[in-house]
Write a structure and sequence with these properties.
mainly alpha, about 80% helix
């Protein structure tokens, strides 16, 4: 209520001032001093509205995070390891609880989803690097090789799993011993988690296409493409300047000469 009264008074004063201003500067002398310096009312809601911005702290943080490939790789490894560790723990305390097993499976599959995304990004960077080194761009070969490697990896993992189950004494359709159950947990959970950490180590040690070097690669490729485009334009201009014959014009000229010769012979 207080804010409403102050806003109304401020609006009345503003109208009076605008009206008096039209009569000239001399009219200001007739105003009382308290009306000349009356503070305007404050509204917290309106202040927030006038300071509104589309900026989002969390949105900016997430965008910066997902642009950092090292941070994404660490997130993938963390989600994988946490998911496998959670499933291992559930296998001891509540192996028959479908909700807990589902939670662990969701964590593992989230890690797999992130991994597939970052692999695609890495492959696109490898295509650029291949062009940078070999001066030839081979997207089809690289992506086809990735598909073949995925299939080969799936077959190899099935083979290793079968060998591992044979080694720990697994027997189908029979109650398994405690040693066999422990071996199954190691094959299904511990070994994949360790292999994921190994992949992360190899990525940090061997993958060179990080921010600075990759920007240099892109800059070099852009320079090459610009030079190639300029060279092609220069060649076309040189061909025109040197008087090289246009194939279309050559055919049209030959047809015209043939028509002229034919008419001359008839005459």
């Amino acid at each position: 209520m207080l804010f409403h009264m102050k806003d109304h008074k401020a609006a009345v004063l503003e109208n009076d001032l605008n009206k008096l201003q039209k009569d000239g500067p001399a009219a200001w002398a007739d105003l009382p001093e308290d009306e000349l310096f009356t503070p305007a009312g404050f509204s917290e809601e309106r202040a927030e509205a006038t300071s509104y911005s589309n900026y989002s702290y969390w949105g900016s943080t997430f965008r910066a995070f997902f642009k950092n490939k090292i941070a994404v790789a660490l997130l993938i490894a963390l989600v994988f390891v946490v998911g496998f560790a959670f499933l291992l723990l559930v296998g001891y305390i509540a192996p028959q609880d479908p909700f807990l097993v589902s939670v662990g499976s969701v964590l593992v599959n989230i890690g797999i989803g992130f991994m597939l995304v970052i692999i695609t990004v890495i492959l696109s960077e490898v295509v650029d690097y291949g062009e940078y080194k070999m001066k030839s761009r081979n997207e089809s070969v690289i992506f086809s090789t990735q598909t073949f490697v995925v299939k080969l990896g799936g077959a190899f993992s099935a083979f290793v799993s079968g060998v591992g189950l044979k080694m720990i004494g697994y027997e189908a359709n029979m109650e398994q011993s405690e040693g066999t159950q422990l071996g199954m947990r190691i094959i299904m959970l511990v070994i994949p988690a360790l292999l994921m950490l190994l992949c992360l180590y190899i990525y940090f040690k061997g993958y060179r296409l990080q921010d600075k070097f990759y920007r240099e690669v892109l800059t070099e490729l852009e320079t090459r493409h610009a030079l190639e485009a300029g060279g092609a334009t220069g060649t076309a201009e040189c061909t025109d300047a040197c008087g090289a014959a246009d194939p279309v014009e050559t055919v049209q000229k030959a047809e015209k000469e043939e028509f002229t010769d034919k008419n001359t012979g008839e005459r």
